[in-house]
Here is the input.
Amino acid sequence: METIKKLISVILMICIVFSLPVASSAISLNSAAEEIKSAFNEALESEDGENNDPADPDDPGDPENPDDPSNPDDPDDPGEPTDPQEPEPDENEIVAMMYACVKFTIFGHVWIYIENTSDETIKVGALDVAPGEGASAGTFGISRAEGSGLYYNVEAYRAKGKVLGMSMPLTGSQLSTVNEKITNRNKWNFFGNCVAFTAVVWNSVSKNKIVPLVFPLFTLIHIAFYGSRFEMFKPDRENVYKQVGTGSDASLKEVKDRTADHFIG
Here is the structure.
């Protein structure tokens, strides 16, 4: 601002000089020239000073300042913290193989067997089953010493060699459906017998439906047509259970020897 004022003063001086007589004009012109030179030098110095002003290291908006927290290129800036995300389980992944099995005894018997083909422990009804192992589930009436209801691993523990069964793979979602059906069928009666139990569980996820007739003869023919013989995983005696309660209230009770070793029928 001061420089502009000086330039205006010099211009006014020049105008006055040219209005004076010639003798005094020469002296005044020399003085005016010096003033013009001085004013222009100050103007140039002022302009250079504004353009070459060093960056203020304390300026928080300076992009050259490495300590500027707003600088996105700061390698030491940890940025926003991110929480590690656990991978969601894939409900469409195959986790097990389910079998509908039949054994012809005096009255016949039909049951469900599920083998864990995944790398994690799964549920079969109310029972935990480790990878590579399996569990059977079936309902019994008067043939069990501890009364009618749903039992686990009686068939698998008592089996000798291969059994006849038709199979289908189960996804995680299908296994959840199957388990809900298993835990809610803790009962047995003449019309709601082992055939009805197996049909309800199997038909909940399979398109190849089992017709729940009272006696297993038709079911035996059905399973023999679609199935094949396979060997179940044999559990320890301590892993034979009777279910107590139903649904989310279901729990397991270890059975007595006479129940585990009794003839399947």
Remarks:
- Residues 141 and 148 are 4 Å apart (CA to CA).
- DSSP finds seven helices and ten strands in the chain.
